[in-house]
Amino acid sequence: MPELDVIHENKDFIVVNKAAGLISEKSPYEAVTVETQVLNHLLKQQRKPYLGIIHRLDRVTSGVLILAKKKSILVEFNNLFSSRKVQKTYLAIVKNKPVKNKGKLVNFLVKNNLEKRADIVPTKSKDSLNCSLSYVVIDKNDFGYLLEIKPKTGRFHQIRAQLANLDLPIIGDEKYGSDQKYLPLSICLHAWKITYENSSSKESQTFEAPLPNNDFWTFKSI
Known about the structure:
222 residues, 14% helix, 11 strands, mainly beta, eleven-stranded mixed sheet
């Protein structure tokens, strides 16, 4: 398993670059998770560290993840997320060329618990949730097209489902129709940046996660 990649750490929280293949939270079925990695890291500093899970990333997704080292900080970040004062920026690689170089996608999404996926449906229903994101094509290489994506909502598998609905499945994402092989337990989706307003200084704070180190992610623009 990959070692813990710490992007930033202070007395209040720790920011890590989550490796694809790991789940975010502790689980009795997983020997190594991001939470256990961070706990082991904090145990080197104090005997009984606090660790709060602020947000999560899918197992197959890599990128920036913030974890709280104090209960008050967990509450503070939860409030920021619930009031939509946090902007996540993702990068995705798709094999097919988008019809438009940029756009906004607005859909209705239903969580399919049986197949552990999200389905885009044509009309609103009692089970559906609205989901929206904006995207722009920022580069291309021999594998596909690089999209910068900013979700406006935080639905289950939303980016994966919305892109697949446009016949733009993310490379490696067989669950959503990709026929292109990638790394095990991984897809070409990376949580690149996270930006929020610092509650005390009122200044914007951004953390950025380095891209996966393989040929798929070799682009001239980043």
